[in-house]
Amino acid sequence: MTRKRIRDSQVQAAKIQKHRTKSTLTMSRIAESGRWAVKLVSLALVIVALFALGAPAQNGNQVILADVEGIIDPAVAEYINTSIATAKREQATALLIRMDTPGGLDSSMRSIIKDIFASEVPVIVYVAPTGSRAASAGTFITMAAHVAAMAPGTNIGAAHPVNIAGDMPDDVARKAENDAVAYIRGIAKETGRNQDWTEDAVRKSVSITSEKALELNVIDHVSPSVDSLLDTIDGTSVKTAAGRTTLKTKDAEVVENPMSFRQRMLHTLANPNVAYLLLILGFYGLIYEFANPGFGLSGVGGAIFIVLGLYSIQVLPVNYAGLVLIVLGVALLIGEAFNPGFGVLGAGGIIAMTVGSFILFESPLPGLRVSPYIILPTVGVTAGFILIAVRMALRAQKQAPSTGAEGMIGLVGEVLTALTPRGEVFVHGERWSAESIEGEINVGEEVEIVNLQGLHLKVKRHSEAKNMEIT
Description:
Structural class: alpha/beta
Strand order of the largest sheet: 8-5-3-2-1-11
Strand content: 15-25%
CATH superfamily of the largest domain: 2-enoyl-CoA Hydratase, Chain A, domain 1
CATH class of the largest domain: Alpha Beta
CATH architecture of the largest domain: Alpha-Beta Complex
CATH topology of the largest domain: 2-enoyl-CoA Hydratase, Chain A, domain 1
Number of domains: 4
Largest sheet: 6 strands, parallel
Distance between the termini: 133 Å
Helix content: 40-55%
Low-confidence stretches: 48-59, 465-471
Number of strands: 16
Mean pLDDT: 81
């Protein structure tokens, strides 16, 4: 029996060893297969990456579209710069800037023009849609384009320089005008366009229609749509920073390149109406915080709005006399709220704020001024807010407290158990432990609360009750 058991054990051990060997071989084969799979996947990814890097996007037959609407400001300058970089990276045949602008900041305009002249990708400026304009800074940018075009019913010009700080002395104004003339003539000479008209656009603020601009060689084409413009300019030879190139825009894919969230936010802040409303909302917050101190939320919000408003006006032709009049008007309205009288301060505040709002931004172009439809309701709401809301807040501060310990003082109650000097009184629908500070007070008499210590009242005879007793 012993030998048999030994043989059985040896046979069983051999089976187990054989099974372990098979398992080891299987695991080894699985691991080897896994390594080969990883190698094949890695090789495939490398091949795909090489093809992606080496192949031009859409064979270069695409046009990047950048939409510019509103003031030419630092956000727009950054947007054009990134759009040119995108067009170059995507190997696009051109960058198309569809523009509608009343003008803007000189430094931002010059930055855009530098980027256009330094671009290796042809830049097309298209003033569109119908009803749009390329005024002031927009005229300079259009003149700098490799291809300049306008939609029917658009206009270009009115490029006289406007000082961002308001009126300039005559000699300084002449210097600024001469500098702008030299700059725009140099641009027109570089792009082969009408230099004499560009000088008139600066010195005389002339503005012309798209058809007249084509006739005077101010622009190259008048086209009703983007597709028709791309078909028209196909095969045109233009000179870029990289040298001469021929446009291949027929049937090109138009790829929109919108502003980033940050660029849109900064661009929105440069709107005159937005700048004005931000300043007014900032005044609201600060005034309410001073009149009704609390957690500081309205004060912090007001300060943020004012900072954003100040950022906005730095890119606009602000008249600081208008800003001072607005602040003076708000101050006069506050004075009326604190010292209500015959309404002289309030009327003066409304007049000062209205006049200041209309002259806050100096520009011959409506797009660079605050809309009357914004000013009149805003002045009315502001006057109402200060004269009504602030006055109510001040009145509430002067009222005696109606809750808590302070709210109990002065209430009148009835004695339930004789105060000798301690007892109970009935006040405000409740029984209270009370102590008389005027000696004994009988049941049923009226008492007035003079102090509260914890849940114990200090009382005295009610003055009216005293008078009745004397009578």
